[in-house]
Amino acid sequence: MLILLFIFEFSKPPKVDWRPSFNHEHKKPWGTYVLYHELDQLFSDKQIELVEETVYERLKFVWTYSTTYNTYVFLNDYINLDEKSEEKIYDFVQNGNDVVFISNNLPYRILDSLNIVTRYNFNMRDTFDMQLSMEEPIFSEPNISFDKGINGNYFSDYPDTGVVVLGRRWLDGEDYVNFIKVPYGNGDFYFNTQAYPFTNYHMLKNDHHIYVSNVLSYVRGNSILWDARYKSDLASSSHPLRYIFANDSLKWAWRLLLIGFVIFVLFSAKRKQRVIPKIDPLQNTSLDFVKTISNLYYQEGQTEDIIYMKLNFFLEEIRSKYALNTEQLDQNFINRLSQKSGVNVTLTKDLILYIIDLPKRNLTQEEVLITLIKKIENFQEKAK
Q1: pLDDT tens digits for 163-180?
Q2: Which CATH number fits domain 18-238: 1.10.3470, 3.30.70, 3.30.460, 3.40.50?
Q3: For the whole model, what pTM was predicted?
Q4: What are the backbone dihedrals phi and psi of residue 187, each rounded to the nearest 5 degrees, phi first?
Q5: Which of 66, 117, 63 is nearest to 96 (CA)?
Q6: Which phi and psi angles does 80 have, rounded to 5°?
Q7: In the chain, which segments carry CATH 3.40.50?
Q8: In which order are the strands placed within the sheet that holds 164-171?
Q9: Phi-psi category of residue 239: left, alpha or beta, with phi > 0 → left and psi -120 to 50 → alpha
Q10: Are 192 and 215 in contact (CB under 8 A)?
């Protein structure tokens, strides 16, 4: 059954994926593969950089654009920038660069800050035969008809001074402004409400590519930053299995592989189970090692070395546990040790004074070692 299902799915004619993409790698109708690979011809004298990071990450250091003239191009059906990225966009244009937004839904905060209002013509349908025109008569084929993908957004209100109308959309003899230029600081914003004419479907149909080249003729500067981040299918375009999922036959093959693997695991697990070996717990030999070393010192009669080792271990415990400096064992140290350990000052002082007087005692006597150990253990039992 799995084999028959695979053959059936593989023999089916491929379906056309009409989901909006605007991804430069996608060859489906609403991708921009054709346009992106024609950029070198359209801008033969410019350097083109594909930007796959956020605007904020790319424009963190705006001063790098102070000596060169650049244009940042955004193309998608919906563009939504975060506030940090919008701040960088303003600085970028303020310093003498251009930003081109080509989208059915433009960034509303930027439009609002520039006093620009868009509206939607609800009388439109996707199957209407629309015309897009350029305002300046120098362009060849100023009016071009489009039969699919044209949306109803247009600019209904904008400042009277400074804003330049560059293009219009025509419907039933009425025109609607869809392409404008807005000066800002030393640079310019370009807004176009029609994104679908730039996709593969229209780039390969009739003379639609002429409109695209007319619009992009306004792109100036030494280099072009072509956005690849803000796309409708960013998650799928960055998926490691995007090539498999983009092909129906490979996608079904992947599904059958996963199903077969699950079936194999289920039946294989019932037939056999790996023997779990017995693992003995690791033995702690630290205590045996300490006993061996201490007996060695004791048998050799080296009580002085044992005293100093015991003292060093105790002082290291104070440093690590109570974060106290043990270089000066004075009254201040005694008070702080008593406060942090919770041991009364009398017992603490008795121990520290005994440690201070050790150099005056005969360290070869066992009584000195035994007394030191008892005082330290007594302190440790009462410490918190």
Answers
A1: 999 999 887 778 899 999
A2: 3.40.50
A3: 0.60
A4: -125, -165
A5: 66
A6: -135, 105
A7: 18-238
A8: 47-51, 223-227, 70-75, 98-102, 187-192, 174-184, 164-171, 130-134, 143-146
A9: beta
A10: yes
